[in-house]
Amino acid sequence: MTARSLWSRNFILINLCSVFASFTNFAYIYILPVHMLRIGGSNTDVGLMGAGMTILGLLTRFVFSPLIDRVGRKPMLMAGVSLFTLNAFGFFLLRESVLGILLMRCMSGFSQGIFFPVPPTCISDVSPKEKLVDALGVFGISSSLPAIFSPIVGLYLYDHVSPAAFFTATALVPILSWIAALLYKDEYKPEPVSAGARQPFRISTVIETSVLLPCLLFFFACFGFSAVNNFALTFGESRQIAGMSLFFTVHNLAIVATRLIAGRLRAKLAVKRIITLGTIIAGTGIFMIAFAQNLVMMLAASIVIAFGGTIYSQYLQADVLLRVSEKRRGVANSSLMLFQDVGQGAGAATFGLTSEHLGYTWTFASAGIIAALAVLFHLRDQKKEQ
Predict the structure, then answer these.
(1) Coil, strand or helix: which one is 94?
(2) Is the pTM of this model over 0.85?
(3) What long-range pairs does 316-322 form, CB within 8 A, spacing at least 24?
(4) Residue 42: strand, helix, or coil
(5) Domains of the chain, with CATH numbers?
(6) What is the mean pLDDT of the chain?
(7) For the segment 118-166, what is each residue's pLDDT rounded down to a tens digit?
């Protein structure tokens, strides 16, 4: 029997869909906090962007995540990527308004809540089980590669051409993601539902409770990492560190490099130990930012965060998807991403307040400690399995 190839047509299309969407998504992550401050917003407004996006994203996932398994991957993929593209055009139209940017970022929670859980679920459908860690690594690279160029291209367009040029580019690129999604052929066949059949609501309908502890790990790790996403650039500016656009470029180069070797760690360490080690390393990297005084120290921290965060998240996601049946993968993956979004949103709001009232040193020190302590949920999960 011939082994199934990892590089199928569908696998390539889903990765292309992720590449183009990720370019715009990462550009917003890096540039929107800076843009909000430059058009008259405050650090609290930056925090509210993340919190608002999270709240709407949370509600969206509760409603739509079960449909990934019930309706099918392709319909949800097309719905999500279409809304994501429309949301990008909304940013372009409302780019000069603090309230408009805030509202559009909140609406990102709706479009991303539908869209982003679908591609990795598709990856689990089209990839051989024995190659799932490697498949998720390739998918992670396709999501990370655009982030290498987003800070450079985005900041260049924003600072040297115009903010309008930046928002035009980020509105047009998702159209390519939409085309790739349109060409994808769904391999998943949902179970037929009888007409008029209604199922009583249970929490397990929208959250895969069997992977709750891994989800809690992801929540607190992402809570801590939100300080990096939202305030690393403004932290650098506050300390007059030149060349801060390199921070996320180096960070994402390190992510890509780590994903290339992450699969080989299985030959040296057990999966559970890899997750434990990665979580602690990521928290340590965040803590390092608090005491960075120059670009070299910032870039060193970005590499440490990238290495730790990549290995724990890649193995954690594979572990979660392999624990559940095919009919629950959509809900399981959406559960993991739901806790990710809640952690990032809650962290953005919390660290928006701490950075404004207590300063950046306290913000990044506490964020690093919280991220590292997330490993306690993983240790509890190990004990439960044993």
Answers:
(1) coil
(2) no
(3) 316/214, 316/217, 316/218, 316/275, 317/120, 317/136, 318/132, 318/133, 318/136, 319/214, 319/271, 319/275, 320/208, 320/211, 320/214, 320/215, 321/120, 321/124, 321/132, 322/129, 322/132
(4) coil
(5) 9-186+207-385 (1.20.1250.20)
(6) 85
(7) 898 888 888 887 778 788 888 888 877 887 777 778 888 988 899 999 9
